[in-house]
């Protein structure tokens, strides 16, 4: 299973960032600040993309997309591969913006 996090909780987590932060939305529609990687949700399990993820499957990974749907699919895929510390931004960038936080264009 993976954990859901809301925009306020994620904003607090970003203050003491201890995770790999991945935008899985395709096509690109902006990033939340401090994003580490952009990997389309339907390509996250490709070997070249897995090589970018932490080697330790217990390391924390936080995923997000525009609405939360693509990141939930990607979270499930990573859990199936044995990752144990997966987090998903519930509601995605839409909820992030509704909470008053910014999206970067690049």
Task: Characterise this structure.
With 106 residues, this protein is α/β, with parallel strands linked by helices. The chain has four helices and five strands. It has helices at residues 7-15, 47-50, 69-80, 92-98, and strands at residues 3-5, 20-23, 37-38, 61-64, 86-89. A five-stranded parallel β-sheet has the order 1-5-4-2-3. The protein is globular and about 35 Å long. The relative contact order is 0.26. The mean pLDDT is 97.
Number of helices: 4
Query: How many strands appear in the DSSP assignment?
Result: 5
Strand order of the largest sheet: 1-5-4-2-3
Note the beta-strand portion. 15-25%
Largest sheet: 5 strands, parallel
Per the principal axes of the C-alpha atoms, what is the gross shape?
A: globular
Tell me the structural class: alpha/beta
- Unreliably modeled segments: none
The span between the termini is: 31 Å
Average pLDDT reading: 97
Encode the helix/strand succession as letters: EHEEHEHEH
Q: Into which percent range does the helicity of residues fall?
A: 25-40%
């Amino acid at each position: 299973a993976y954990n859901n996090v809301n925009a306020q909780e994620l904003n607090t987590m970003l203050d003491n960032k201890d995770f790999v932060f991945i935008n899985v939305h395709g096509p690109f529609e902006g990033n939340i600040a401090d994003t580490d990687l952009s990997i389309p949700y339907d390509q996250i399990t490709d070997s070249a993309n897995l090589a970018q993820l932490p080697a330790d499957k217990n390391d924390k990974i936080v995923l997000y997309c525009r609405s939360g749907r693509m990141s939930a699919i990607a979270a499930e895929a990573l859990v199936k591969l044995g990752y144990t510390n997966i987090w998903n931004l519930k509601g995605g960038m839409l909820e992030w913006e509704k909470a008053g936080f910014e999206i970067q264009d690049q």
